[in-house]
Design goal:
It catalyses: S-adenosyl-L-methionine + a thiopurine = S-adenosyl-L-homocysteine + a thiopurine S-methylether. It is found in: Cytoplasm. InterPro entries: SAM-dependent_MTases_sf, Thiopur_S-MeTfrase_Se/Te_detox, Thiopurine_S-MeTrfase, TPMT. Its main location: cytoplasm. The structure is a single chain. The protein is α/β, with parallel strands linked by helices. The protein has one domain: Vaccinia Virus protein VP39 (Rossmann fold), CATH 3.40.50. The protein is 30% helix and 25% strand. Strands 3-4-5-2-1-6-7-9-8 form a 9-stranded mixed beta sheet, sandwiched between helices. Helix 3 (51-57) links the parallel strand 1 and strand 2.
Length: 215
């Protein structure tokens, strides 16, 4: 997918993917990652999610990766943090205390940049990518995190009824992408279309939200 697509989304404030609350599935299943205070959670394609503030309040360090500089500056502003900015090979690094976000191309991020985080939380990264990019993304994520355990949230629907993003990614696709490196446990699968009228307007007749633990 062309990066300009996402830059335009942020520029035009077309942020239907941005939740105005901490994700309920993160709150419900965070303990499944068995993290200790001070350990690090990596959020790929993090945007300005409120989940970051929640993780920080829980006592974890957070590393994010995000293409949009506007998303990153909005994130730090929302947390009332003034970051120190430095260059990295893919863009700008924003750092303040226990929060570090790499703005730029996630595929240029290297394992040495994030030093094997203790867990990954993917709420909107995998489903933001078209099928042709997902295998590359999954391999890259495995490489840079040294196969850290992962809490993964996806959406699932009939892809013929609606073009993504977000794209439909169900358990068979998760196992195809990650099954050789993780055990894949389904934590929940819930119909959410009644709570997401915008997707009904886009033509969907069913929409499921899935949570997986990869470990």
């Amino acid at each position: 997918m062309n990066p300009e697509f996402w830059h335009q989304k942020w520029h035009n404030s077309e942020l239907g993917f941005h939740l105005l609350q901490v994700h309920p599935l993160l709150q419900r299943y965070l303990d499944e990652l068995a993290l200790k205070a001070g350990q690090t959670v990596f959020l790929p394609l993090c945007g300005k999610t409120l989940d970051i503030g929640y993780l920080l309040e829980k006592g974890y360090r957070v590393i994010g990766a995000e293409l949009s500089d506007k998303a990153v500056t909005d994130l730090f502003a929302s947390l009332n943090r003034q970051p120190v900015m430095t260059d990295w090979q893919g863009g700008k690094r924003y750092q303040h205390g226990d929060l570090c976000v790499f703005q730029g191309d996630i595929f240029l991020l290297q394992s040495g940049d994030i030093a094997a985080p203790d867990a990954i939380y993917d709420r909107a990264a995998l489903i933001a990518l078209p099928e042709a990019m997902r295998a590359r993304y999954a391999r890259h994520l495995l490489t840079i995190t040294d196969k850290s355990p992962q809490l993964l949230i996806t959406l699932e629907y009939d892809q013929q009824e609606m073009d993504g993003p977000p794209f439909s990614v169900g358990e068979p696709q998760i196992k195809a992408l990650y099954g050789a490196d993780y055990s894949v446990a389904s934590l929940s699968r819930k119909m959410i279309l009644d709570h997401e009228p915008v997707f009904r307007e886009r033509g969907l007749t069913a929409l499921y939200e899935n949570a997986f633990l990869l470990g």
